[in-house]
Amino acid sequence: MEFYVRKKKRQLKAVLTVEAAVIVPVILFTITGGINIGYQMFSEAKTSAEIHEELDNLDPVEIVRKNTLIQDIRK
Full-prediction pTM beyond 0.70? Predict the structure, then answer.
């Protein structure tokens, strides 16, 4: 009877080892995937903020003046 109990304990340990071997990579993949998604969102937000800042600094009146001056010079 004692042999049977020891054999069952070893099998249980083996099953837990196999489960851990499957679950740990899934958990690590999920964590690194989340970090990657966060980094991509940060990059997109940073690019969007830079574009917005450039558009705020843009002076459309000055652009029209330069273009009309260039056209006047060409004539």
Answer: no
Q: Which two tokens stand for residue 46?
A: 């940073």
Q: Which residue type occupies 21?
A: A
Low-confidence ranges of the chain (pLDDT < 50): none
Structure tokens at 26: 């899934």
| Residues 6, 61: Cα–Cα separation, whole Å | 86
Q: Which two tokens stand for residue 8?
A: 């069952």
Provide the token pair at 34: 């989340």
